[in-house]
Design goal:
By secondary structure, this protein is an all-alpha fold. About 75% of the residues lie in helices and about 0% in strands. It has a domain of about 140 residues.
């Protein structure tokens, strides 16, 4: 065999192995399957809890795909607009039905922060000002909606109004998922750093969700308050507004039956299989599918419970 033929054969083998890995499209399809399994477990009565375990893989993969999308999108404004419209549509649906999921709001919050970081890293210092304005807006809206919901537990305050304002208040996953998105974005081009960053995040997440650490840290604050009951309510609603993942009073429960979000570490193996290729697009398919499958599963679940 000639040398050039041998080199061609080696290159073809390498290319074939690379193609066997996962593109952004195949990662999204895999995450979609995990998400559907998760939501079947959430909305259909008497499903095994193991279906929810599988679902923990979905969100981190979608967040990773978002991080890649931010760096490769041709229009950041259109990207954000799609997520905002999706979050509004889901917020309206949430206000009408007993559906808890709205990943669009979480992805929108992550995307805004990543775009700010992207431009700041490229030397566009004016984005520091934009980022500060965004952070101040989030503080204001979280305090406002948290206070409003503590006084009047209206579904519109929790679902629709924050979505309209682009607020992270009562956002699915809360600030921890936004931090996760930032970690993934900053480390995604180095697989060792990515693996370390995701692993450390999941370890800290497990520590805070599987133990009573947040409860123990807030107990002295409650005890020193003039009105301990009121302070306890403020802390509970404060965590509920911005940190949905490990609120005092809800942590330290069974890691397999109730507090199983730590299982998102399983997504890392699939994320590391990313081959740097986009694959097929079909971006609108994922938006439409998300909304439709939730409505369908909710409808089926309601009829089976009747």
């Amino acid at each position: 065999m000639r040398q050039d033929e041998s080199c061609t054969g080696i290159c073809d083998t390498i290319g074939q192995k690379e193609n066997e890995k996962m593109t952004i499209f195949s990662l999204k399809i895999f995450a979609l399957i995990c998400m559907v399994i998760d939501h079947i477990g959430a909305y259909i009565p008497d499903m095994p809890v193991q279906m929810r375990w599988i679902g923990r893989i979905a969100a981190p993969i979608y967040i990773f795909c978002l991080c890649e999308g931010i760096d490769h999108t041709s229009s950041e404004k259109k990207y954000l607009l799609r997520l905002y419209i999706g979050s509004l549509i889901m917020a309206v649906i949430q206000s009408a039905f007993t559906i808890n999921a709205n990943i669009f709001r979480t992805l929108l919050a992550i995307a805004v922060n990543l775009i700010m970081i992207k431009h700041i890293r490229s030397g566009e210092k004016q984005y520091l000002k934009y980022w500060l304005i965004y952070i101040l807006w989030q503080i204001f809206t979280c305090v406002m909606f948290g206070w409003m919901y503590m006084r009047h537990q209206d579904i519109l305050i929790r679902r629709l109004y924050p979505a309209l304002c682009g607020s992270i208040a009562f956002c699915e996953g809360g600030i921890p998922f936004i931090i996760f998105g930032i970690i993934v974005y900053l480390t995604k081009n180095d697989k060792k750093k990515l693996a370390l960053g995701v692993s450390l995040f999941c370890a800290v997440f497990a520590l805070l969700s599987l133990t009573n650490l947040t409860t123990k840290l807030t107990e002295p604050i409650i005890a020193m308050a003039d009105n301990p009951d009121r302070m306890n309510r403020i802390i509970q609603y404060g965590f509920f507004t911005i940190i949905n993942s490990f609120r005092p009073g809800t942590t330290g429960k069974n890691p397999f039956m109730e507090q199983y979000q730590w299982m998102m570490i399983a997504s890392l193996g699939f994320i590391l299989m990313y081959n740097g290729q986009k694959g097929r697009s079909m971006k609108w398919f994922f938006y439409v599918f998300y909304v439709c499958h939730l409505l369908l599963l909710w409808y089926i679940g309601q009829n089976m419970s009747a």
